[in-house]
Structure formats: structure tokens, C-alpha cells
Amino acid sequence: MHLVRYLSPVDGRPIPGVRTGDTVASLAGINTFAELLQLSLEDLRAAVGKVGEGEPAEGLKFLPPLDGRGEVWCAGVTYERSRGARMEESTEQSVYDKVYSADRPELFQKAPAWRVVVDGEPVGIRSDSGHDVPEPELAVVANSHGQIVGFTVCNDMSSRSIEGVNPLYVPQAKLFAGGCALASGIRPAWEVSDPKNLGIRLVIERDGAEVFSDTTSTAKLVRELQDLIDVLFLPNDFPDGVILATGTGIVPELDFALAEGDVITITIDEVGTLTNTVAVGREPFAFLATDNLEGIR
Fold it and tell me: For residue range 79-92, what is the model confidence (pLDDT) as tens digits?
């Protein structure tokens, strides 16, 4: 079962629903994903349990599972591999070594809801970067009360060349058109047996051939998921919910960089799969602003 957001085949409005296998059922009385993530975990689970008969998922247009004032945030340097990769690329290595073991995690805002791309849409790399990689991450979905209600797949696209020059350039290395992708479905928290023991796999294809692949596990994540959410909520309100990507344990070696047309596939056990094709620059993502204005995202 996955919580999804899609265009209603009746009137074209974005609505929340529940996908089970090849069918999708709408959530009665809940008109937006923001409303869904305003519910307590108990009430959300009850609402999901009341869905009726579904319709075929084939032909439906699925949207990012976030809307309204929803935001995507990220945690950084939460895996030993990430610490090592950041130190390899950076002129200021000590900051990454320190944050890995510090009490306070690195947290940064990645994208508001309207800037997020979804499975099947392009992901972006900056035209002024030159060395970019995907970062496959388990994303924690929290409601407005700070409760973990589900999990999804995030690709936290990153410019290694920009961040490597100076850690203060992290916002430019992380926040750009097409830089944040989410799977179309959220797996409810009550259906994931152990989120700290999930396999993660990344595959990158170029011209139909595999050019990179690797695996890791959330068992290597050094932070506790609820602790990350608690730190995020301590100074902030998230009235329409928030999705927090929890860091990556897979980083290609320095001799690998993404290219236009590469196909990136991320799979997380029990959670889902996310596939996107790389595009360069901001122009391929003009549709995000247009769709938002027209009310179809």
C-alpha cells in the first residue's frame, strides 16, 4: 500500500489516494495531501482504512506526494561513506568529519512542495557545475505533529564541484531546478517493519548500458530517524507536513559524473522505486512553475 497524489480522472484536480497493487482509491473527505498530513498518525491510519473500491492505476497522472506548505528537507553526512566522500572532494575536510559525530545533525531545506519532481519526470544538474551525482536516500514523512507517518524514496541531487570548493556553497550545490525528486508513493510507517534495516540500491544507465551501481543499507545510518525529526521540529512548524531525506550511503568515486540523458534508478526495500532521466539547466523545469500556477500540481 502507498499513499499517493494524482490527478482526478473526473475533474482533473490533484487529490490524495491509496494505491494498492494496480488500483487507486480516493480518500473520502480529504481534498489535499496537506489535509492528510495534518492528521495525527492514529487518525491518518483510520482514514486510510476507510477507503473504498479503487479504480485502475493505469493512465492516471501521479504527482509528488506533497503539496500546500509542505517542504522537503535533508540531513547530511549521516553515513560513513558520505563523510569520506565529502572529505575527499572538499578543501575544508574537517567540517564533515566533525558533523558526522556531533550531537547536532546537519539539516538543510531542499525544496518547497512545488519544486519537487516525481518518478518519471526529469531530474536536473546545474549548467555551471560540471560534476554532479545523485544521492539515493530514505525519506521520512512526518505529519504536522512531528510524528513519522511514512517513508518514501528521495534523490537529493548534488553538485560535488560547487560544494567541494567551499562548504558555504551547499545551498547552491543542493538547491536548483530539478534538484529534488521523490517517488510517487509513500509507504505507511505501520507497514515498514524496520526502517533502520532497509536495503538501498542505485543504478545509473547511459545509452542503455549500466555505468554505475552500488548498494547500502539504512543499518549504516548513524542517526535515529525520530531524533532527526525532533531536531527539525524544535525551531519550526510544518503545518502541512514535511519530508526529510536522511542522507546517503552511496556516493560514486570522484572520477564519475552524471551526464545529460543518464537514467537514475533508486530502489529501497519495502518502500519503493524512483526513476528519472537527467536534464541540464533550469529550462527543462519551467513546467513546475507553470503547472503550479494552473493548479494541476
Answer: 876 655 565 655 55
